[in-house]
Amino acid sequence: MIAECLVVEFRVTDDDCPVATAARETGASVDANPPLLRSDGHALLHLTASDPAVGERLDADDRIRYLHGVGADGRHSYRCLSEAPCAVHRLVDAGFLVDSVHHRAGTERYVGAVVGNDVLGGVLAAAGGTVGVSVERISRLGDDGDDAVARRWDLTPPQEEAVETAYQMGYFSVPREVTASEVAEAIGVSKSAFLERLRRAQSSFFGHLYDPGGE
Q: Is the pTM value of this prediction over 0.85?
């Protein structure tokens, strides 16, 4: 049995798959589940976006089939079939176990795992041969801080986005540098939706800090 499992994060630019194109053209943030690859090379996709314009762009893309969308809490969820491969598929073929795909400001971020150094070598070779893919981080699974914030604190992707954006914009600074409305506008939701996500995230934080055993 191989004991070592590595957490790897990739940064991707210039991907021309339908979701990356829609996110880049609209400026929306998009969180996607790992794509489910079919034997014919097509991918089943499930994603959430901060802007309904993403759905409009996908609907107009000839490479997308069977698009279904719903909206709730300021986010828009879509399921569809994509006939075009994206950069992550090459990494998956080489052995990358993709956990999440995030689109922010025209850039993708893949987070996942690789089992063993031999497989890692193949994945890095695939990344080097794919335009716009670079390694951001490699760490051993189990090292302090190797898990995504959302995974360690049981946050949903929208909650993680709200906390991360608020922190980066100075919402938690003293004195506060931005308002709740400004953060909400940056992530494409209403002020009330942002504050609700923030409260739920804080509840999760405090629950782990002060009641780690869940009692």
A: no
Q: Are residues 174 and 129 in the same domain?
A: no
Chain length of the chain? 215
Helices (H), 27-74: 53-60
Among the listed residues 6, 12, 2, 3, the one whose alpha carbon sits nearest the alpha carbon of residue 121 = 6
Q: How far apart are the first and last CA of the chain?
A: 36
My answer on whether 22 and 126 are in the same domain is: yes
Residue where a domain stops, chosen among 111, 140, 169: 140
CB contact at 8 A, 108 and 30:
no
Which element (helix H / strand E) includes 24?
A: helix 18-26
From the number of C-beta atoms within 10 Å of its C-beta (0-12, 13-18, 19+), residue 45 rates as: buried
Q: Which residue has the higher pLDDT, 207 or 166?
A: 166
